[in-house]
Amino acid sequence: MTDSQALAPTPSPPHSKAEICYGATFYNISSYGIMEKYETPTVIFGYALPLLELQIILIFVSIVLSHMFLRRIGIPQFVSNMLAGFILGPQLIDLLEYSSDRLSLDVPGNVALEGVARLGLVMFTFLMGVKTNKRAVYKIGKRPITIAVSSLLVTMISGLAFRNFRLDKVDPLYMPLRLAPTERSVIVSAQAVTLLPVITHLIYELKMSNSELGRIAISTAAVSDFLGLITLVCISYVGTYRYASPRIANRDLVALIILVLVIIFIVKPMAQRIVDMTPEGKPVRKVYLYVTILTAIFASIYTSVFNQMYVLGALLVGLAIPDGPPLGSALEARFESLITNIFFPISIALMTMKGDILRALYSFDDISFNIFLLGLTVVVKWTASFVPCLIFCELPTRESVIIATIMNYKGFVDLCFYDVALKRRNFSKATYTVMIVYVLLNAGILPTIVKALYDPKRKYIGYVKRDIMHLKTNSDLKILTCLHKPDNISGAISLLQLLSSPLKNDDKDRGVIAVTALHLVKLAGRTFPMLIPHDKRSKARLLQNSYIQTMMLAFTEFQQDNWESTTVSSYTAYSHEDLMDQDICNLALDHLTSMIIVPSGRKWSPDGVYESDDIMIRQVNDSLLDRAPCSIGVLNYRGYNKSKKRKNSTINVGVIFIGGKDDREALSLAKWMGQNSRVCLTVIRFLSGKELDKSKNWDYLVDDEVLNDLKATYSLANNFNYTEKIVNGGPAVATTVRLVAGENDLMIVGRDHEDYSLDFTGLAQWIELPELGVIGDLLASKDLKTRVSVLVVQQQQQHE
């Protein structure tokens, strides 16, 4: 083979029936398969589909290899997608160059990959718009506006002040002198703007969506994105007016205004109409989902035709779609996995592949000032975000640092912005490479910093005692009861009825029971949780929800039956299952709650027979036990016998007291129940029979004091009994617990016990529900034949 033959491009295969027109050239999509005449081994890649498949395979192999190592140090997947692009870029494999002339001499070999990548970025941006918390975007206070305006304007003014600095040093071979200020202006503009979809994605990844910091960041990004959009449209208009023609500039501006008006007055009302037309609990018709997706794609094509960023149309349509069920959740359920796991990584890898590190190093002298300008804008923007947070918004220093760091985050839309700038020749190849390397470092370092600084437990630190034991005399007992399913309502109401009792003439000053009922709904299709109070202002559609209506009716009836001693307020929280515990803690903190009551997650039939365990509820309870800002009670409710369901029937409540702060809290709760004439309260103290040096054991002394106070309070009551039982070893404990359970309808026990108390040898190894503790697990066991409910109590933890 001669040198000229070796350098000749691979011969294009003959046209097949499956062909597509690109400009004036036809090229093949798929090969003839086993009937193909293989002139060279690479002839198969002269077809668009096999070439696309090869490119996608190489991209995902590179992503998997990169993320295999990076995930061990907590680096997000987005960085692995970018690293895959660098691996396949000019510095190593150079996949784009290899594919460039495979289809024909006239058709770029990467046209199919470009189409897939662009579709992926459009769809991902659309989903981020759909999932954005509309309340955080539309209900913006003074703090986000202050931070956003300061961040944008100070960065823009500071950066543009250096735009013309050292222009005489620009090498004409690197870039014409007249284009250098434009390149610097694009760098400053990109740095000054904080993009809403990017921050939405970051907040979601960091699980900050239900925090106050997350809401501030989203609101600030919304303001910054809006101001940045106006700024970029103005810059684009001036540039087009000056360098193209006034007619094109005016046309593009009018076209963008028309698109915004169509989305506001046509797309958004139609989307709301779809939501209103969909029956409760029914899925949205598929045709509506496909029409919505096509609308987003058409809007992106429209903005691209009129010289705007192609993702802008998809973002605007996404923001017009009501988040949450039924439409938002349906869009996420149907499209998110495909787009997030397939199309989005391809988009990121392709844009990164266009960078050339070797060229950037070769042109370092020419781009050194651009690197300085990039560093300057980073420092200025961080400072311009931090100072307003600290001084004007009066946020703590740690939170101010977090917000300032989040405002500097760069992501996928920024890459899209750089890609458009490269195509329009506003960036040189070397500057483009510097910018994507900056995004790579930014996306890898900033989330790690935020994770290190952000601790959701900090706000729950127990500086103030919020439990029942330390309630002042005549104080209100504030209880937050959580409901995951309609099945949880009867158990919660039954327990609250035992705590409620009519006020007598001699205790008119006694505090009331303030109940907050929280209905938790697993979130789908909405990035950000939503807490909705149920009052006269609640939306009609929300009140028509059968689950919510059932809860409200049950608690309204409970309040009417106990109107003298009880107040009730109801809420619904839409939240992700791994963030529900934070929503519960936030509400408990806001209401100064003394105890949170949650269902155990174990479901029993009406006959008291075990049915199933809800893993999600158990995981939420585990997190609550670790971070709750007050005491917490986990209720395993089996229901009462038919004879106990009458309003005047006596309910036998037993308290197993072993020792420790959790047992003391359980005893304090039982003390409230003892005021109810329906309750027959029995306290059973388990003793080991060993001699203890009581003078040196502080917990034992406190236990005795609490028990003596309880016995003194109910010394003359007919519905109170106190007994002591000596038990030695795990088997004896299990046997005694089962005997006591058979005599009661409800057992109240502490979760943990002091080491001095009893020997639980053999029981801890067989525990099935660790969140209930040893005794609670015995009482909630599937094998326990007695139909007894159990409330496991943990006193407020003192977090450090």
Automatic annotation (TrEMBL):
GO terms for cellular component: endomembrane system; membrane. Belongs to the monovalent cation:proton antiporter 2 (CPA2) transporter (TC 2.A.37) family. CHX (TC 2.A.37.4) subfamily. This is Cation/H+ exchanger. Residues 514-641 form the Cation/H(+) antiporter central domain. It is a multi-pass membrane protein. Its main location: membrane. The chain crosses the membrane at residues 44-66, 78-96, 116-133, 145-165, 185-204, 216-238, 250-267, 287-305, 367-393, 432-454. It is found in: Membrane. GO terms for biological process: potassium ion transport; proton transmembrane transport; regulation of pH. GO terms for molecular function: antiporter activity. InterPro entries: Cation/H_exchanger_TM, CHX17_2nd, CHX17_C, CPA2_transporter. Residues 651-796 form the Cation/H(+) antiporter C-terminal domain. Keywords: Ion transport, Membrane, Potassium, Potassium transport, Transmembrane, Transmembrane helix, Transport. Pfam families: CHX17_2nd, CHX17_C, Na_H_Exchanger. Residues 62-453 form the Cation/H+ exchanger transmembrane domain. It comes from Arabidopsis thaliana x Arabidopsis arenosa.
